[in-house]
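Why Peptide methionine sulfoxide reductase MsrA? Reviewers of the renewal asked for a concrete example.
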Amino acid sequence: MFLIDMFNKKTAMPEADRALPGRAEPIPTAETHFVNGKPLKGPYPEGLEMAYFGMGCFWGVERLFWKMPGVYVTAAGYAGGFTPNPTYHETVTGQTGHTEVVLVVYDPKIVSYEDLLRVFWEKHDPTQGMRQGNDIGTTYRSAIYTVGDAQAETAKASRDRYQQALTDAGLKSKITTEIAPAGAFYFAEDYHQQYLAKNPGGYCGLRGTGVACVGG
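Here is what the prediction returned.
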């Protein structure tokens, strides 16, 4: 993503009591989605549901989901860590515990959670641990943060099916995806929101999208 990432080799989670202190107030971000103009933080229409996915650099991940029919709005942010209201430059030190995550607000009548999970498994490598490709560090770990018991059960069942598919294909790779209940989600800075709509030739980081990735 940025030159600072070259020095981000933090591949072990920090202890909670040693994480950066953060701040009480949210960091500034965009009010509306750059692509569809909908409110980034809501309120969202009744009947919509939320999902959270970490698949490495959130720039390419967010574009992947905002293009799906039935997705109302997406947002880049940080989750799974300890530091309240972290900044990007804090997360990449590896001292906040967060991973880069995309919030997906979707209409389950149009697109199912299972459909979202299928994209999740197929568009990144969930076996790499604390990295995704050339992006190394805890902020790039694979993660699914679930909302409610139904999502948790569905996510774990889909992981098990995907692991079996890898095994059946003769691969010894083990899925390292973190699956945990969704905690606090912190919206990333304005310039991260819908980054690839603002910078069409920017770094993507995903596999199997047919999009050339530049920068780094």
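The mean pLDDT is 92. This is the kind of structural detail the renewal will allow us to pursue systematically.
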